[in-house]
Amino acid sequence: MSGPKYGKYGGQFVPEILMPALEELEEGYERYKNDPEFLKELDYYLKDFAGRETPLYHAKNMSKRYGVKIYLKREDLVHGGAHKLNNTIGQALLAKYMGKTRLVAETGAGQHGTATAMAGTNMGFQTHVYMGAKDTVRQRMNVYRMELMGAEVHPVESGSKTLKDAINEALRDWVSNVEDTHYLIGSVVGPHPYPMMVRDFQSVIGKEVKQQIMEKEGRYPDSIVACTGGGSNAMGIFHSFIEEKDVKLVAVEAGGSGMKYTKGAALHSASLSVGEEGVLQGACTRILQDKHGQILESSSVSAGLDYSGVGPELAHLSDIGRLTPRVANDDMALKAFHELSLMEGIIPALESSHAVAHVMEAAESGELGELVVINLSGRGDKDLEAVRKIDRGE
Amino acid sequence: MKLSTKFNELSSRNEAALLAYVCAGDPNIEATPAIVDALIKGGADIIELGLPFSDPVADGPTIQEASERALEAGMDPDRYFELVASLDVDVPLVCMTYYNLIFQRGLDKFVTDCVNSGISGLIVPDLPAEESEDLARSCSTNGVDLIFLIAPVTTDERIKMLLEKSSGFVYIVSRLGVTGARSDVTDATAQILSRVKTDIPKAVGFGISNGEQASKVVAAGADGVIVGSAFVDIIASGDNVNERLEELAHDIKSGCKVD
């Protein structure tokens, strides 16, 4: 059977060669997701290896400056410096229970590849990470980090040499080695069961927030704001609040250098805001494409948001009006990067800076309400070199 | 020409079919008609014309690069159907492309464009049977064969389900992985052929690049061999292309004659 759909989105648009593997994965996930042994081990890794739970921090200075009460969910404090490890621990553990010995993963900025290398080497896997050749240059310290932890990094020279091409190449590896290999997708994208499984593993973020905000404020927030590329940190923090209809969910996409297009490329990555229904890399979702259906390259100052598609569940939540897509461009994100660093002594990842930027822009209008939670999905250490170059006009 | 007509005709002559794949518009739109002619002259029985997609996940580097060259040359679905309609050939034509291009054009429009330009079959490698209901309906209404792939990892249960949905021929993937020329054709081919029990013609693809390999595949029970990357390699070389395509087609076709 084809996977559950999120409205008209989702599904399993993959070559026949992968269908048995997806069936096996779906069965494995259904079998272990409520298994006490599996859950106990997952909890152990999340607590003692990843460092959960992460704090919900009241950003006093930022709150004062913008006139609303702002909390930051500190996913930047997870081992590795981003929320990515929540998912890689979950999937690597599942792969172990399923008897796989090899992991393949794609990575854009290198965050997901790093998180895969961490979980992979810790649990005894041979780990292969595909990364666009352009990104291996932009993020060379992350390549080194992955290699230090025993992963083999394969630069991808095809197509636009970025995340989209890395996913294609990782899929090809999986197609060729499907018997002993688990493909560890890093976001809520791809064919079923990935969007559901990655969301579930990331949903620990929102579960914690629900408890923490009740303890601190005695109520749920008015808004939750998260940056969105593929959308795993967004789905992770949103999931527990979807039924809480009074909580506004805001997905902030990368506006890049403008909401415009050149031949074969968009200058932004806002597939939720302005993309159209289509099929990319295993799922029907909203994508950036030309009138014929060729996929457009995306663009953003932040490699982690630089993607032509978006998770199918986010596309559906947007269609039914449960979440609000918004856009923050490169300049706004860079400004927020500096401002949060100065105000709170917390350097956000460029990805998370987009969420921060939107709150800085929208808070005073009142549209986010009085109590706002921002998912600070990662720390900015990885971006220092890039931002410094931009600041110097290099 | 209908695919079934062609397979029947060949079978009565004790021959297996040579299905030759090239990407339309590679290296440029003007070159494709002569390339198709050369393949047919060499002995190709069915031509698979790829409609290039920006993200061909089921293909290896050879065909991805061909797709990039064709897209760069300006190939798009409108030009594709114009080009196909202009071909003056008496063999069945099959369109191979990815689902998003069909989806954006509209399923019915895409399929009627196939019919009007003379295409008799459609292969969509990223569309598994489970997602194919709407396209299958449109194909069946318009008399276009929708061709499914069967891989070595496909379970017997799935094979049964896929055969029920297949017409024209079934595309047997000889090994795991993506498209691309290989030096060996493994025992897996014979195994998978023996598991597919049907009257629908069985064409084997992935990794076949010469007459010797073709004759092994045919001896193992294939009704057709599908060759793509080996032809595309010749096109990519830019060296004496049409003559070498004809020679290679001739060599592979010689392996398709059943003793």
From TrEMBL, chain A:
GO terms for molecular function: tryptophan synthase activity. Its cofactor is pyridoxal 5'-phosphate. It comes from the Archaea. Its EC number is 4.2.1.20. The modification N6-(pyridoxal phosphate)lysine is found at K84. The keyword Amino-acid biosynthesis applies. Keywords: Amino-acid biosynthesis, Aromatic amino acid biosynthesis, Lyase, Pyridoxal phosphate, Tryptophan biosynthesis. It catalyses: (1S,2R)-1-C-(indol-3-yl)glycerol 3-phosphate + L-serine = D-glyceraldehyde 3-phosphate + L-tryptophan + H2O. It is an enzyme of class 4 (lyase). InterPro entries: Trp_synth_b_CS (IPR006653), Trp_synth_beta (IPR006654), Trp_synth_beta/beta-like (IPR023026), TrpB-like_PALP (IPR001926), TrpB-like_PALP_sf (IPR036052). Residues 50-378 form the Tryptophan synthase beta chain-like PALP domain. It holds the Pfam family PALP. Pathway: Amino-acid biosynthesis; L-tryptophan biosynthesis; L-tryptophan from chorismate: step 5/5. GO terms for cellular component: cytoplasm. Belongs to the TrpB family. Tetramer of two alpha and two beta chains. The beta subunit is responsible for the synthesis of L-tryptophan from indole and L-serine. This is Tryptophan synthase beta chain. It comes from Methanococcoides vulcani. The gene is trpB.
Automatic annotation (TrEMBL), chain B:
It comes from the Archaea. PROSITE patterns: TRP_SYNTHASE_ALPHA (PS00167). Its EC number is 4.2.1.20. One of its GO terms (cellular component) is cytosol. InterPro entries: Aldolase_TIM (IPR013785), RibuloseP-bd_barrel (IPR011060), Trp_synthase_alpha_AS (IPR018204), Trp_synthase_suA (IPR002028). It holds the Pfam family Trp_syntA. The active site is at E48 (proton acceptor), D59 (proton acceptor). Keywords: Amino-acid biosynthesis, Aromatic amino acid biosynthesis, Lyase, Tryptophan biosynthesis. It catalyses: (1S,2R)-1-C-(indol-3-yl)glycerol 3-phosphate + L-serine = D-glyceraldehyde 3-phosphate + L-tryptophan + H2O. GO terms for molecular function: tryptophan synthase activity. It is an enzyme of class 4 (lyase). The keyword Cytoplasm does not apply. The keyword Lyase applies. Pathway: Amino-acid biosynthesis; L-tryptophan biosynthesis; L-tryptophan from chorismate: step 5/5. Tetramer of two alpha and two beta chains. HAMAP family: Trp_synth_alpha (MF_00131). Belongs to the TrpA family. The alpha subunit is responsible for the aldol cleavage of indoleglycerol phosphate to indole and glyceraldehyde 3-phosphate. This is Tryptophan synthase alpha chain. The lineage of its organism: Archaea, Methanobacteriati, Methanobacteriota, Stenosarchaea group, Methanomicrobia. The gene is trpA.
